[in-house]
Amino acid sequence: MKLNKKIFRDFKKKNINLITIDGITCSGKSLFASLLKKNLQKDYSNIYILSKDLFLFSRSKRISITKRINKFKINQNILHYDSFKLKKLLNFLLGKSNNKILILKNLYNRKTGKNNLNLKFKYSKNRLIIFEGLYVNNDIKFIKDPIYKILIIEKVYMSLSRKIQRIRDKKISIQLVVTEFISIHLQSFRKYIFKNNFDTNFENVNNKFVEVNHGKKRQLNDISHFLKKHMN
After folding, report:
1. Please, what is the average pLDDT of the chain?
2. Residue 1 lies in a domain
């Protein structure tokens, strides 16, 4: 991926030290973040990628939530993530705390599906943070520093296909994954991107990212067409 340098040439002038990357589930946010880091390494000596997946609740808890879906208001960001720990880390990384080292316990471990990961974070000045994950712009509303916001768009059917492929075991059925995708994720994500604006948009085309216009509108239309066809 080669980025249009015009987009990023004045980052330092605007004192931007945080970039957010958001997009529908399984849209390639993590891949895009790593490619973005490679593109910006000549301009920044210290780039840190923060994945929001670290703050997921355990797999078993999220499966339980999906099974009891009718008892919840549909807000995936609240249902699936530990916002307290995430805010604590963002404040730390952006120099809003006096400490130089932060230890967070019981973060999400993708290998086990449990909250059994303990990590140590070190603070450094002049760090560019690339924050990738779902609903990340809601998580940084308390930050007053300049932020550059990127949206990755993906076809809904492709997103669902990748989500099904990620099923690891028989603890969750394909039907339950589809239920969570339609009833929780698409409902929450549609409301979220409708309320948020983004500085630029990229479309995932076979894991190659192409800058596009009106990405937010296209993603909203695609989600709406999918829900109209498949919602009961």
Report:
1. 89
2. no
Q: HEC states along the chain?
A: CCCCHHHHCCCCCCCCCEEEEEECCCCCHHHHHHHHHHHHCCCCCCEEEEEHHHHECCHHHHHHHHHCHHHCCCCHHHHHECHHHHHHHHHHHCCCCCCCEEEEEEEEECCCCEEEEEEEEECCCCCEEEEECCCHHHHCCCCCCCEEEEEEECCHHHHHHHHHHCCCCCCCCHHHHHHHHHHHHHHHHHHHHHHCCCCEEEEEECCEEEEECCHHHHHHHHHHHHHHHHCC
pLDDT above 80: residue 177: yes
The encoded tokens of residue 174 equal 């394909």
pLDDT of amino acid 215: 94
Residue 3 lies in a domain: no
Q: Kindly indicate the confidence band of residue 222, based on its pLDDT and cuts at 50, 70 and 90.
A: very high
In a domain, 6, yes or no: no
Domain count of the fold of the chain: 1
Q: What global pTM score does this model have? A: 0.91
Express each pLDDT in 192-215 by its tens digit.
999 999 999 999 888 789 889 999
Range of the domain at 135: 11-230
List beta partners, residue 51. 132
- In this prediction, residue 142 carries a pLDDT of 86
**Which residues have a Cβ under 8 Å from the Cβ of 9 and sit 6 or more positions away?**
none
